[in-house]
Amino acid sequence: MIKKYSFFVSASIMLLLLFFASCRSARYLEEGQALVTDVDITGISPEIKENATAYISNEIKPNSRLNLTIYNLFNTRKGRYKVENRRNVGEPPHVLDSSLVELSAQQINRYLQTKGYFNALVTPQVEVKKKKAHIDFQVALGQPFRFGNIHYHADDPTIEAIYAQEVRSKSPAKTGKQFDSADLLGEREKLYEKLKERGYYDYLRQYMRVGIDTNAVAKQANLRVEIENPTDSTTHTIYQIDSVFVKVILPYGQISTRDPYLAVDTSLDMSYNDETGRFRLKPLSRYMYLRPGMRYDLKKENQSYDRLYEMNGFRNVKINHQKVGDGRLNTYYELTPRPVMANQVEGEFTFSSGMSGFNVGNTFSHRNVFGGAEQLEVKMRYGVLFDPRLAGSLANKIFNNDFQVGVNLIIPRLMTPFENSSTGTYGLPRTTFSSTLQFFQQDQTYSNRYFTNSLNYIWYTSPRSQHSLTPVSVEYRVGRLDQAFQQQLEDEGYLLYIRSNNREYFGLNAQYNYTFNAAKLLTKENFGYFRIGLESSGNLLGVLSEVLKLNMSAEGERLLFGVPYLQFAKTEIDYRWYRHLGGNKQFVLRFNGGVAVPYGNNSRLLIFEKSFFGGGMNGIRAWQARTLGPGNYNRADLPERLRLNLRNLDQLGELKLEANAEFRFRMLNNFLGAKLNGATFLDAGNIWLLRDNEITTNGTFKTNEFLSQIALGTGFGLRLDMDYFIIRLDAGLKLKDPQFAKGEQWVIKEFFNSREFKDHFYETHRPDRYNFIQYNFSVGLPF
């Protein structure tokens, strides 16, 4: 505890030192100079203000305190800044520049005009005190202009019809709506895309011109849209693809020793030259959507780019076109492959309950096994954990060993025994063959052997819909307790531990997942996200058990290859509702529920890997993972020795209900070079058993009681957005804890009497301790 407080005190002192060091930057400036310490825009709404801030010159925005402090440490001498090497370390001070202030005011004014405020007035006010400058851009918006009459004309009647039907009719720029130039830019881009998709290869965005008249009617902008023809023609030309040439080239600096002769594939009607000699045309051509005889289509060209890059076999893809006559194009695909083979070594040190160890892993990749950008991955991992409390040499102090080896073969198409209609239009289809083997040994008390083989398909039926099907997954596990250790556990009552770990089973599973709108999860839009997963095991074996004459164990379980086979069904649903509230504000509602039912051959207990748990960084964040539920279950009912050894085994469930609400907002646009976001949240839910077991009581789901067993937690989170990834710290506070009696579940009442409450809890739940606040550190958003 003392160490924790010492850390916080040290961190606070360091932050204060950084703050004061950066504040002293003004003393190093020349006479007449002033350090910009504050910039603001007043007189406009927060939504417009956030965008308008981007038009202020970066050279007159306040420095990052950390970067400026570092600069001061390395670039000052005798009370002033050094002249030489000024930009080597840190960030130089942003000094007031009146010309940049005026320029920024003009840029803000131009931005406001694009939003319909044609009479806006931006007046910069500068206040300088003790060499520190405060800049305030004061804005008088005036009344916004609205769209008035909109007239359009195209020199080409066909183009005019496309514009009227496909663009103007769906444009947000309607009469009476507040003027926004973004609506007109969207129209121009939409027309460009629609015409390029219809073969108008030569069409340019500049052919569409918009005249704006703000003088005819007060506060109204009348539009005149003109779509011109090329200067040398009376119509726009529609182009057809004449010939297609495909070339796989060597990376820069390598010289090909192969014959440059272009081979023509008559079945595909494409010319092909592979300087590497490693690729086959047929598997690549599946995702080259521009073919001879087709009309030019920008959409198909972009799809070709996307799919060829998604194959993960090419570092660079270029698609060029050459005119070869009136309305005819030759298309050239040029592909630069990535290195065929790669190897990656990873390692980490681990610490757990006073023990330490390490993990080391190696991943070998081959990116073109059969000439069609198929990817082979071979992964190996070894981990060891040492217990210093064990006697003897270092070898005798090994607490556990874990060795894993896995092989994945990823094929960029659907490998099915029948014809399928997946063309990759909306995403690259994949077939993955996987095998994994694991050996685990723990301190001569427990060993585990796990082997699995699976076949998985992924495909897309729309830009928003992803399907994943695992028609077959074969699992074989042998988990064994040392005989003497097992007898000791039986004598002490660890029946649940024995049944969970001393198991041998065979699994023949099938799984299906459907995901909707996964690509929108990081966008600021209004949308809904949905995912459903279905999984079953042992149904076919259950039907065939009589036909196959499977043997029966002493416990009444059917045996396959000498071990029982699994039978269960599981489904899980995840629905989320995202609403963008303007700027960087977002509100999210989420519901997550699932049920897993063991039946038939293993109806007594669902295996650990298929069970649900409550709490954790992506669930009900006021509880640590696997410490919530099931139902009203309270660990005080267990003997102390069981509470210690059954951790993570007695708080699992077969049914899960969970709901979350989260409000996200921007706190700082620049914090240590990243964006700092905040979030407040409310989490609710629990897990339940379908029937009580030997250890867990009061955990069974009952329709007339489950609402009173819902846990509630709230909290606040910080998210450091680094653009490529997000670092997240959430602090969850318990409000209602269902492990207590109904009149005592609102534990928030005990928050300010926490010492006495925690001491009493420890006396009845030793060695468990009660924490009102749970911290969660992770990478990525919770949902």
UniProtKB/TrEMBL annotation:
Keyword list, A-Z: Cell outer membrane, Membrane, Signal, Transmembrane
Boundaries of every Bacterial surface antigen (D15) domain copy: 368-745
Subcellular location: Membrane
Keyword Transcription belongs to the record: no
Top-level taxon of origin: Bacteria
Leader sequence segment: none
Pfam families for the chain: Omp85, POTRA
PROSITE patterns: PROKAR_LIPOPROTEIN
POTRA domain span: 73-139
Keyword DNA-binding: no
Gene3D superfamilies membership: membrane protein fhac (3.10.20.310), membrane protein fhac: a member of the omp85/tpsb transporter family (2.40.160.50)
InterPro entries registered for this protein in UniProt: Bac_surfAg_D15, BamA/TamA_POTRA, D15-like
Cited PANTHER family: SORTING AND ASSEMBLY MACHINERY SAMM50 PROTEIN FAMILY MEMBER (PTHR12815), TRANSLOCATION AND ASSEMBLY MODULE SUBUNIT TAMA (PTHR12815:SF47)
Name of the protein this chain belongs to: BamA/TamA family outer membrane protein
Organism: Sphingobacterium arenae
